[in-house]
Amino acid sequence: MKKILVIHSSPLTQGSKTRELAADFIAAAKAADPQVSVTERDLVKTDLPHIDEALIGAFYTPAEQRTEAQKAALALSDELLAELREHDTIVIGSPMHNFSITSRLKAWIDHISRVGETFVYTETGPKGLLEGKKAYILASRGGNYGPESPAAALNFQDTYLRAALGFVGIDDVTTIVAEGVAQSEDGLAKAKQQINELAA
What we know:
This protein is α/β, with parallel strands linked by helices. The protein has helices at residues 17-32, 53-59, 68-85, 103-112, 158-167, 186-199; strands at residues 3-8, 37-42, 89-95, 119-122, 125-128, 134-140, 172-178. Helix 1 packs parallel to helix 6. The longest helix has 18 residues, at 68-85.
């Protein structure tokens, strides 16, 4: 865990449970290894456009054939890819929004899920290219959507993130969830304890 990339996706800058968990994670990582390097990417402060026709065209145009306009359209996506490649540990702060992830986090996934860059198609199916990385999902949910909950089938949050990360080759994923944060502090306390145990 020498180089950590933390992705913040909560629209809240104050009172965000996932930002709080991420801060705890960073503190625990630095306590365990003072030499660790941490980069924080705040998707709320990043002008992250949703995928449009022009960007799709740029994605599927060979690099040597791209126009200047296509290169400009890809600049942020390329930056996000380079950032992802250079870190060995990825930490994603993800509050649940309407049973899933925030729209900004979905946009980030769309920008880093690129054929020929983070995955390729083979005779046996798609293959992710970002192997050898470790990911942590720091999730928060107002209600309880855990495996034991009657609402578990409505959880398209960390389940989706695991699938998306696995598709690009990041299949070593640990999920830490603060359940029921709108009801009590118990779920947040449990998540914090799990983070502290990681550094123990």
